[in-house]
Amino acid sequence: MSIYKIVKGNSFKLHIEMQKAYISQNKQMLEDLDMTQVSNLRIELTDMFGDNIPLFVKPGQSPYIFCKQDGSKVVLSSKEVALTFPSTLDEGTYGIRISGKYNGNDFCSIERNLIAIVSHNSKTHIPLGIVEGEQGGLYNTKYWLELNSFDEADVDNTNVWLDASPSVIVYDGNEHTVKLSWTAKKQGQDVVPSSIKIIDGSNVIVPDDSAKSVEVKRTEVGNYAFHMLAVIDGKTFEATASVTIGAKAMYGASSAFTVDALDISKLQGSNATLVNQEITVTTTDEADTVWFVSDVPLRFIQANIEAELKETIKSGLYYYQSAPLVAGENTYTIKSK
């Protein structure tokens, strides 16, 4: 399943952010990669098998550029790089290969099933905001999509942000209050939107003109996304915030292959630690991936051998996923990391 599904005939720009993992015996952390410090940078389109496909660009132009929105200009950014895709891509599934040298070390990140070019609108899927790719261990990637180039779009340097606090809540059966607050800036100065709407599932919240925040209530386990539409000088700007309600530990089988696609409400939860427990998860032909979610780092043993589950850290929670498995029972002995 591809992250982005786009109808053939559309050109678009894919923005890419990278993070480097620092791992030691007692600490793990992710740090944004300064793209201006990357030498020999190459970003290439690949097919579903990871083989390179040349992009069609004008003579003398590179298929990738550093970019940052600054008025109507494209300027160097230390945090992101953008790749322009032509409208001539054939139907199929594509990925991205990013390579270069950072702080003297060669690196390579290959994202498969990132983009699917499809035949018609009913097959499309374009998630809002920044999405995380497959976790690569040493170098991880995030993406966001722009369907209009800076030359085509009527853009300015107005930005809006939506924040949810708390963003992670331990499930206890009680109702919890989440504060949604927002900020808007134009040319670096605070501005007040003429109108704001916050989309909460099927509910639309319209705050008072003087409000700077609203409160929402949540009780059940799940991932909740809130989308804000803010009108400034007649233009609509979007921002997204998310809240996760989960037990201290959750586990189960799912068809999801990324953290963003995982529906944790389908997992079994416990407010007791999983450490030193033996857990059996049953996979099916459809739900073929084992998932564990914990508020502490874990490691997993199968048949006295340490199992390789991919770890993702997001919003203070540790997510672990297996490779796709055949249908059946999978038993893990869980230890602290």
Describe this protein with a few key phrases.
3 domains, Immunoglobulin-like, 337 residues, five-stranded mixed sheet, 56% strand, globular, mainly beta, six-stranded antiparallel sheet
Explain how this protein is built.
There is one protein chain. This protein is mostly beta strands and 337 residues long. The protein has 3 domains: 4-146, no CATH class; 158-244, Immunoglobulin-like, CATH 2.60.40.10; 248-336. The chain is 0% helix and 56% strand. Strands 2, 3, 6, 9, 12 and 13 form a 6-stranded antiparallel sheet that branches. It has a 5-stranded mixed sheet with strand order 1-11-10-4-5, with no helix packed on it. A hairpin with a 4-residue loop joins β2 (12-23) and β3.
Write the layout of secondary structure elements.
Elements: E1 4-7, E2 12-23, E3 28-32, E4 39-47, E5 52-53, E6 64-66, E7 69-70, E8 73-74, E9 80-85, E10 92-102, E11 105-118, E12 131-132, E13 139-146, E14 158-165, E15 168-170, E16 176-186, E17 189-190, E18 195-200, E19 203-205, E20 213-218, E21 222-232, E22 235-246, E23 249-254, E24 268-270, E25 278-283, E26 289-294, E27 298-302, E28 305-307, E29 310-314, E30 317-321, E31 328-336
Parallel strand pairs: 1-11, 15-22
Antiparallel strand pairs: 2-3, 2-9, 2-13, 4-5, 4-10, 6-9, 7-8, 10-11, 12-13, 14-16, 16-17, 16-20, 18-19, 18-21, 21-22, 23-24, 23-26, 25-31, 26-30, 27-28, 27-31, 29-30
